[in-house]
Amino acid sequence: MTRPFHQVAYTVEDLDAAVRDWTDLCDVGPWSVWTMGPDVLADMHYQGEPAEFAIRHALAWSGEMQIELVQPLSGPSIFADQLAASGPGLNHVGRLVDDRAAERTALIARGFRAVQGATFGASRDGRFEYFAAPDGTHVIELIQPPSERFAPDYIHPEREA
Predict the structure, then answer these.
(1) 116 CB-near residues (< 8 Å, 6+ apart)
(2) What SS3 state is found at 69?
């Protein structure tokens, strides 16, 4: 693994409420919020099979750590699985990668298995993929950022002009 983890992600039931809580209770923000589904994602897979899914997610920084909140909307996902099995809470840690194929190969060699992923971004050259540990205790996301992003649905709190 060439880079340290830079993100910690939580599954939530209500993204808007979670964004407000993290802002009000933890002084984290501003949050950028996106809706991502088949209209903006491609090459989606879940548990080794092609699958369409949709999520809403929000990103904000706390120092050098990015916090991500994810609400599943439709289709199969590791987030919907978590809500059904144990409720909201910590879902995964993420790391940016320069060579996704090499990092993917390294995780699989350690016994991790790919559980979900997709291509994203306005440029459709970004990729995220989640890998479950052999014992199921944790999930690692490999993130290859897109060269061009979509504008967020909204930012909370709103930035002053």
Answers:
(1) 45, 46, 47, 53, 77, 78, 129, 130
(2) strand
Topology (CATH level 3) of domain 7-156: 2,3-Dihydroxybiphenyl 1,2-Dioxygenase; domain 1 (3.10.180)
Q: Are residues 16 and 95 in contact, defined by beta-carbon separation less than 8 angstroms?
A: no
Vertex 54, ends 132 and 49: CA angle to 5°?
50
pLDDT in tens, 4-18: 999 999 999 999 999
Given a contact cutoff of 8 angstroms between Cβ atoms, the answer to whether 82 and 55 are in contact is: no
Contact partners, residue 133, CB within 8 Å, separation at least 6: 111, 112, 139, 140
Q: Give pLDDT, residue 55.
A: 98
Q: How far is CA 22 from CA 4, 61, 89, 106, in A?
A: 24, 11, 13, 34
User: Both tokens of residue 37?
Assistant: 């589904």
Domain ranges of the chain: 7-156
Is 108 strand, coil or helix?
A: helix
The overall pTM is greater than 0.90 = yes
What residues contact 30, with CB distance under 8 A and at least 6 apart?
Answer: 23, 60, 155, 156, 157, 159
